[in-house]
């Protein structure tokens, strides 16, 4: 019996939540093979590849998720945080302004904006930081 995309996505999320990232990759890939622009599968795959430090690859997944459904704030946050990791600060500012223009907001967006405004210790670009465990848990909880 072959799984539907929704069933496969659910299995991927379950594996992902239990920390079995390799096991989660297979169902996400199944969904993406069937529906390359599936927003949830792209976002979740992005989260997986961030976890193995494939930041540039993650950006592509997050961008597709965001383009497929720009109303999900977490997609936008993941995209922006990935741009920060890549030190693409001009793109971060553009993405943050786009978020504000569509009414996205909240503490996570405020924190990103604050980081952009604060100079680093040596006057260089603001340092990037990984999402907190609380932010990762929020991402994972969205798919349960």
Global Rg: 16 Å
Indicate the CATH topology: Serine Threonine Protein Phosphatase 5, Tetratricopeptide repeat
Instruction: Please mark out the parts with pLDDT under 50 across 5 or more consecutive residues, or reply none.
Output: 121-127
CATH class descriptor name: Mainly Alpha
At CATH level 2, the architecture is Alpha Horseshoe
Structural class: mainly alpha
- What is the residue-mean pLDDT, rounded to a whole number? 82
* Succession of helices and strands: HHHHHHHH
How much strand? under 5%
Domain unit count: 1
What distance lies between the first and last C-alpha atoms, to the nearest angstrom? 23 Å
Characterize the main sheet: none
Q: Could you give me the name of the CATH homologous superfamily? A: Tetratricopeptide repeat domain
Q: Helicity range of the residues?
A: 55-70%
Overall 3D geometry? elongated
The tally of helices reads 8
Total strands: 0
Describe this structure in words.
By secondary structure, this protein is mainly α. It has one domain (5-141): Serine Threonine Protein Phosphatase 5, Tetratricopeptide repeat (Alpha Horseshoe), CATH 1.25.40.10. Helix content is 69%, strand content 0%. It has helices at 5-17, 21-34, 39-51, 55-68, 73-85, 89-101, 107-117, 133-141. Helix 2 runs antiparallel to helix 3. The longest helix is centred in the first third of the chain and has 14 residues, at 21-34. The chain is elongated, with a radius of gyration of 16 Å. Residues 121-127 have low confidence and may be disordered.
């Amino acid at each position: 019996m072959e799984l539907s995309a929704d069933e496969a996505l659910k299995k991927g999320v379950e594996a992902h939540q239990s920390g079995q990232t390799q096991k989660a990759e297979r169902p996400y890939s199944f969904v993406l093979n069937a529906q390359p622009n599936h927003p949830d599968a792209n976002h979740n795959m992005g989260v997986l590849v961030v976890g193995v430090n494939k930041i540039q690859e993650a950006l592509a997944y997050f961008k597709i998720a965001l383009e497929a459904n720009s109303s999900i704030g977490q997609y936008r946050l993941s995209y922006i945080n990935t741009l920060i990791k890549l030190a693409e600060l001009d793109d971060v500012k553009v993405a943050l302004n786009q978020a504000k223009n569509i009414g996205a907001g909240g503490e996570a967006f405020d924190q990103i904006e604050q980081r952009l405004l604060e100079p680093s210790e040596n006057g260089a670009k603001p340092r990037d930081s990984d999402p907190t465990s609380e932010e990762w848990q929020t991402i994972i909880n969205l798919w349960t």
